[in-house]
Amino acid sequence: MKSFLTAIVIAASLALGPAHAEVRIKDIVSVQGVRDNQLIGYGLVIGLQGTGDSLRNAPFTAQSLRSMLERLGINYGADAPRTRNIAAVMVTANLPAFIGQGSRIDVTISSLGDAASLTGGTLIQTPLHGADGKIYAVAQGPLAVSGFAKEGDAESISQGVPTVGRIPNGAIVERRIMGAFQEQATIVLETRNPDFNTIIDITDAINAYTRKRFRRPLAEAQDARTIVVKRPAKTDITRFIAEISQLRIEPDTPARVVVDERTGTIVIGHEVKIATVAVAHGNLLVRVTEQPEVSQPAPFSKGETAVVPRTLVETAQKDGRLAILKGSNLHSLVEGLNAIGLKPTGIIAILQAIKTAGALQAELIVQ
Questions:
Q1: In what helix (H) or strand (E) does residue 90 lie, and over which residues does it extend?
Q2: Which residues of the chain have pLDDT under 50?
Q3: How far is the C-alpha of 89 from the C-alpha of 61, rounded, in Å?
Q4: Which of 335, 318, 317 is nearest to 326 (CA)?
């Protein structure tokens, strides 16, 4: 247990040191409007080794197959084929910002029907649409599937998800999303973790830089998340964003404790503190054992043999240490928890009880 919590201290010490580490502004903010766009499409995967959709259970696959063959000039009549080497899939991708026509992006393929596996399949030409219904990319190529599934008459084995695959660089961008980035008069920066102190530090750092170079402040904080930066006159906006993105600040972090009761994981923030409190933790063990006995009647009596219940109840309580916890910083807090000598589940229970008592000066998040 001691090594478990000591690892938290070591990790925090390496990450933070005696004070908060400085980070680049580009690592904690994003430029409003510079983002990915989601694409989606419906297609067919062919070339499967009998692991595709059963066309009777997946009628949309049969309809798609018929439509595809008709577009290619093939008409096989009214009889539905019984092939199982084809599967209907959904194709998804993210279209990055500023990507040009002819560039390639990765795509993810997920089965729609009752296909057992997409291993060895090839996606045929599939248009990818944006939210506006326009085609922005076209995907095609052989799938890379990490999972597998094999089965016999009496046993089966599987690993991963064989009905999901990827095609690296599997889609070609056919349309570029046009924007007015170069014509914008202001740049809006948004922090990924809203905090008033962090916003002010970013604003001050940008203004200190612009005063030195442009002789006037250009940044203004709007709220806990947003900063508006005026574009300098006769300055390339791309170069200007690159320059202010390299400025460094010390972001402020909230006092927060995150616990995961399923895995026993405990993450304690650097600013977490505990008021002076006495804590004892002990486990009470109650064991109930049934030992029925057979009762025999006396000789020459008219009694009957009967089973008489017999119950043994034993109680035992492990030693519980009473410890004084007073965490003025992360190191002293973890040392106090180590002094009790508990497993992660016990530490979680203690942290919850300390929070209820009002002694934990932090936000407690239980996942």
A1: strand 86-95
A2: 1-19, 284, 286, 315
A3: 9
A4: 335
